[in-house]
Design brief:
elongated; RNA-binding; three-stranded antiparallel sheet; 13 strands; two-stranded parallel sheet; mainly alpha
Amino acid sequence: MSSNTSPVITRFAPSPTGHLHIGGARTALFAWAYARRHGGVFVLRIEDTDQARSSEESTRGILQDLAWLDILWDEGPEFASEGGKASGGDPRGVGPFSQSQRLDLYNAHMERLIDAGRAYHAFESPEELDEKRKASLAAGRQHRYDRAALEVPEQERKRRAAAGEPHVVRFRVPDGAITLTDEVLGEVTLAPGEVDDFIIRKRDGFPTYHFAVVVDDELMGVTHVIRGQEHLNNTPRHVALQEALGFRVPKFAHLPLIFSADGSKMSKRDKDKAARDACKRAGVEGPPATNISADEFAAWMKDNKRQLQTEQLAAMAESMGLELPEIDVEDFRAAGYLPDVVCNYISLLGWSPPAEAGKDIEKFDMAFLCKWFELGRIGKTNARFDRNKLLAFNNDAIGAMSDEEFADRWREWCARYEPQLPERLGADRFAMLAAALRPRTKTLREAAAGAGFALLPDDAIEFDAKAVEKTLKKNDGEGLAVLRELKPLLEALPTFDPAPIHTVLETYAAEKGLGMGKIAQPLRVALTGGTVSPPIDATVAVLGREAVVGRIERCVREIGG
RNA sequence: GGCCCCAUCGUCUAGUCUGGUCCAGGACAUCACCCUUUCAAGGUGAAGACACGGGUUCGAAUCCCGUUGGGGUCACCA
């Protein structure tokens, strides 16, 4: 970086009121990439000024999700990820990074504003304001705060506030139009009177978002504010505040929003919707999970706006065999997507690499993103999230891996979501299965599902009726005959590895003048109960001699009668 | 509803700023065929868009205006 330009400082500032949403992840990714590209600093700040909704647990979850995506912050809460990489810290001494710990800082600047007459105490109750709002609405007027508090003389306002009377602090918004320049959208102007005297300190003494953001961005030296477009209308407030406080005005870049496939804004509600629709389709009348009360369920079914807890929805989905749409970063992790693929895909939502980077490049890694990311190439139009494309990318990434790497990644996934799977399989069979499954699996979860046949006890295999008919009974039971002849051949094999198994099957097929399909399919049904499994030699090898012989015997006995 | 933002294949997008090289390129999805030991994957090919209407210009996807459509936002939430 040249020495005459100030370093780039970006930040991601989530409020810890829930899980990290995939849209939030993209915001973080862009802010991170921009800082990386310019050799700058990426700060993580926790916006927990809403005491009622913020939680420590959410904060931990968000840090974990970011670390999983490998979006690591230079400054912010200290965190050691599972991979052992440390993040956070405060080399410049601009912390703490939780707003709830910065109250003194906010109050100091707030007092300056009040003393300068740019902000004032207001004593109306929330109920009072609510009534005024309703009255405006009923009269068909746009509601704006009427500055009623200013009718109380200044000295009296200060006296009452000092005496401890409950109050808020409002910013006295300057009269003129407010214009800001956005790096993505260009100039945006709000006419005079569009912004009213908004609250900057709540009754509970905490600053509102608007105030805290402005103070923190200044104190932390943030040069580029990168955030979602839903904040665009807030930005004039921030600019007005920055000017009143004598702060630098950072550059702004408002990102287009991410929508669900149906065109609505992607939100946790999508899960409620999917679950509710499923309940309606199935005609469910009582709560399908134990962590939901009957009343709660009934109210939720009736009211499309009502939301259940993530855990409740998960329990419901589990009991109904339902797949909820992925919304949170954690959802994608659980669904078996690779973090680098998720980053690759979401970076394409609203951004594309420049031509200098290469022609029509879509698949790239984090280093590429950091090398080429620029605000000027962020689009203005909202994007729909296309799970199919993400899935295709994930599939391609898995396809490009070595068997060993896939096994490692799958093992890590299993440790979190299916810990019994590698334990019961053992290292050798796990590796063998991983190699067999890798070319035909799109997600790590899918691989786990495909491993089911190897996990079941031999006598628990359920033979699919259609498969039995088609591959075993048809043509006077030619499939069963194959099984009977194959059993001793397989049993006699000196080593039970894919290669010799393959040779035996091929030799047998040649002798009988049969196609591989006539042999592999009956065997597959006998061993797995169905017609879908990894290549037959791998399927046989993974199960091992004992299980193979046992399963064939049982199949012949039960189907052959 | 007020205000603000946006508008290229079904979807994500390249191209728009610096009009002509664009009868618009890529990717995902779709369809067809090939391959095949199931399921996938893979290969080849096809179909598919400049929202509409006015300007400006020799020439507009690209510039201007309007219409329509979509979205965001209107809290003592962030």
